[in-house]
Input
Amino acid sequence: MNTLTKKISVFGIGGAGCNAINYLASTNKSNWELVALNTDQKSLNRNKAQNKIHLGTNLFGTGGNPDTGTKAAEQSVDEIRTALKSVDTLIIICSPSGGTGGGVAPYIAKIANEAGAKVFAIALMPFLHEGQLRANQAKDALTSLRYFAATKVIENESINKAGAEFTTAFKLINQKVKAEIEYIIKLAGKNT
Output
């Protein structure tokens, strides 16, 4: 099976992942299916993804709690499984420091892995100003994520240290995410 006939899905999970999906939706000329998944309905409504999944029953997010994120994913497992149907390669974008990214990304990676998909993740690590709690949450979630997905880490702070304004930094991060996705797809195509 060549890469042109494979189903490639890119899941943006939580605020950071959905931000990256918006960028990809405006620049993507490929056949990747873009899916935005979030616990925050208002944020999800503004997303440009082809497909959107509201996770859980709470409309306003997880309050930064990864356990709440995991529970929301469990409540939406049928929608998640439907979105994963016939996916050959799944690429997850998330910030593992958040409640949705940290709680949902490992859960979805596990489901996709069990379904036989090649699972990759791009983890956007928190800026220093986000604090130690978020850094610790990111480390814990990253450990779980790496168990089910080949994971590339992007250190947001390294881009911030380059002296970029925040809007410029986010654009640079999204450009880096897109480049990583293109590399992953190229790599996945060689290993079929």
Observations:
- The longest strand covers residues 118-125.
